[in-house]
Design brief:
Length: about 180
């Protein structure tokens, strides 16, 4: 599965291109117009474009949160205008999927990703002389990568359910309950 995952911001956003379980490219703190250009280039070649959804936690928020939401909407509008699939992923879903705990912090999510991609920091991230699969990931790119990995995990869970639903519909054909 080829995924373009975006951690949106009010002025700059970060994205990763994740394909077949590996980071293929990374845009770190790119201004939002540059991110729009990256979407134009990559969205049509991806199975899905993901944007981190903004969730309310009952606290007051400032202008930057509203600006971030506006940019997320602009990314959505652009992606859909290109005919590509776009989905929002909640941070709480990332926490639950990767850490099995909705109260997990960024450091827990990062640790879970490092575990998935090598078991320890030296293997997963590596060093300049011997880079690991997550060598290009830092700061907000961890959030973007977490979106992509979460989506893949959620898709694995959805596919058996979709197959079960198809089998039930097939079995109902020709019965009083089916079409």
């Amino acid at each position: 599965m080829r995924i373009f995952a975006i951690d949106p911001g009010n002025k700059v956003s970060t994205a990763v291109l994740f394909d077949q379980g590996a980071v293929r490219d990374c845009w770190k703190d790119a201004n939002n117009e540059t991110m729009r250009e990256a979407i134009k280039t990559h969205a049509c070649h991806c199975d899905v474009v993901l944007v981190e959804d903004i969730e309310s936690f009952g606290m007051e928020v400032g202008v930057s949160v509203f600006r971030t939401a506006q940019w997320a909407g602009r990314f959505e509008e652009l992606t859909l205008s290109l005919g590509a699939e776009m989905q929002y992923v909640k941070r709480s879903d990332v926490k639950l999927t990767l850490c099995r705990n909705r109260t997990a912090k960024d450091k827990n999510i990062r640790a879970a990703l490092i575990e998935m991609f090598g078991g320890d920091k030296e293997t997963a991230v590596g060093k300049k002389a011997s880079p690991g699969p997550l060598y290009s990931i830092s700061n907000h790119a961890w959030s973007a990568l977490a979106l992509a990995v979460t989506w893949e995990e959620m898709e694995k869970d959805r596919k058996p359910a979709d197959e079960d639903r198809r089998k039930i519909e097939e079995a109902r054909k020709g019965t009083p309950f089916g079409g």
